[in-house]
């Protein structure tokens, strides 16, 4: 594989699992130094670090910052700058999900989803954008969702946060359009990760469906391809946006969703 990110450094939030881990691995394979970040069981974190080690042949720096707290977001950014020398590529990926009718939506879940899925991207961008502008090169990639473009019932906080991520992406792109920095969103459909698989389990229990019916009839109802998006498909989209041939791609929302949002 071409080492298109040789000499580059990247911070990928939420990279102890799922899409974030896939992106961190794709960046490492392309030659970048990567800082991984996220919460989880010690075994899960060790697994993520071991996967990165296999590619880099060295330990990647790791941050356990809880991104619901802006002070921890800022601390994580400072640690990444120290460990990597500078941060050329920021991927705001960490996120959580919770479903409930809006009138029953727990306030603490609303606050947590907005803080982790949206505000953490703002706080990290605020810290890491100035040095990117000074260097004349930078990439900010925000992992939004098909739910950043369209809505589904029972996902008030998630849909509001992801629409916010798409809006933030556009503003940062406008403000950086002549600086060598780009800012884009990726809007995946249902991707085969722990976050989405938990939703299939919940639907199976709630509706008494087997796994196949829960997946095809309910979860993928909106995804015309009727199959999971794979992590690697999203990781390769991020790699393109991080790479050397995407300098004019900024302010965009890259849909990777099996035609979900075309209808
Ligand atoms: P995942 O559950 O596999 O991973 C989520 C990551 O975020 C983990 O590393 C976790 O530790 C981290 N995280 C969660 N809460 C945190 C907190 N308070 N502080 C710090 N880190 C925290 O999920 P995933 O499916 O890989 O999702 C990654 C991103 O992609 C999310 O923003 C999600 O909304 C988005 N997305 C996922 C799908 C999907 O179908 N899986 C679809 C569209 C968008």
Structure summary:
The protein is α/β, with parallel strands linked by helices and 263 residues long.
Structural notes for this entry:
It is a single chain. The protein is 48% helix and 13% strand. The protein is built from 8 helices and 7 strands. Strands 3-2-1-4-5-6-7 form a 7-stranded parallel β-sheet, sandwiched between helices. Strand 4 (89-92), helix 4 and strand 5 form a beta-alpha-beta unit. Bound molecules: nicotinamide-adenine-dinucleotide.
Q: Level of helix content?
A: 40-55%
Q: Give the SSE order as H and E letters.
A: EHEHEHEHEHEHHHE
Q: Number of helical runs?
A: 8
The overall pLDDT average reads 95
Major β-sheet annotation:
7 strands, parallel
- How many strand segments? 7
Order of strands, widest sheet: 3-2-1-4-5-6-7
Listed once per kind, the bound small molecules are: nicotinamide-adenine-dinucleotide
Distance between the termini: 36 Å
Q: How would the global form be characterised? A: globular
Q: How much of the sequence is in beta strands?
A: 5-15%
- Which parts are unreliable, with pLDDT below 50 for 5 consecutive residues or more? none
CA radius of gyration is: 18 Å
Kindly name the structural category: alpha/beta
Question: What tags apply to this protein structure?
Answer:
binds nicotinamide-adenine-dinucleotide, alpha/beta, 263 residues
């Amino acid at each position: 594989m071409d080492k298109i990110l040789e000499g580059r450094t990247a911070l990928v939030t939420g990279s102890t699992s799922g899409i974030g881990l896939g992106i961190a691995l794709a960046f490492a394979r392309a030659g970048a130094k990567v800082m991984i970040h996220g919460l989880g069981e010690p075994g899960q974190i060790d697994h993520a670090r071991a996967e990165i080690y296999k590619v880099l042949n060295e330990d990647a720096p790791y941050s356990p910052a809880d991104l619901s707290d802006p002070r921890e977001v800022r601390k994580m950014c400072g640690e990444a700058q120290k460990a990597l020398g500078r941060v050329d590529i920021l991927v705001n990926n960490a996120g959580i999900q919770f479903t409930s009718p809006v009138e029953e939506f727990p306030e603490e879940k609303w606050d947590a989803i907005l803080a982790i899925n949206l505000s953490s991207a703002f706080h990290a961008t605020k810290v890491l954008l100035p040095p990117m502008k000074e260097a004349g090169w930078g990439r900010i990639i925000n992992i939004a969702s098909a739910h950043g473009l369209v809505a589904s019932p029972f996902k008030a906080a998630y849909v509001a946060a992801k629409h916010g991520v798409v809006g933030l992406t556009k503003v940062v792109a406008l403000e950086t359009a002549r600086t060598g920095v780009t800012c884009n969103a990726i809007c995946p459909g249902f991707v085969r990760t722990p976050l989405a698989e938990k939703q299939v389990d919940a639907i199976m229990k709630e509706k008494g469906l087997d796994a196949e019916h829960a997946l095809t009839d309910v979860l993928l109802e909106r995804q015309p391809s009727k199959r999971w998006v794979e992590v690697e498909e999203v990781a390769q989209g991020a790699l393109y946006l991080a790479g050397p041939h995407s300098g004019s791609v900024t302010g965009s929302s890259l849909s990777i969703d099996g035609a979900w949002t075309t209808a």
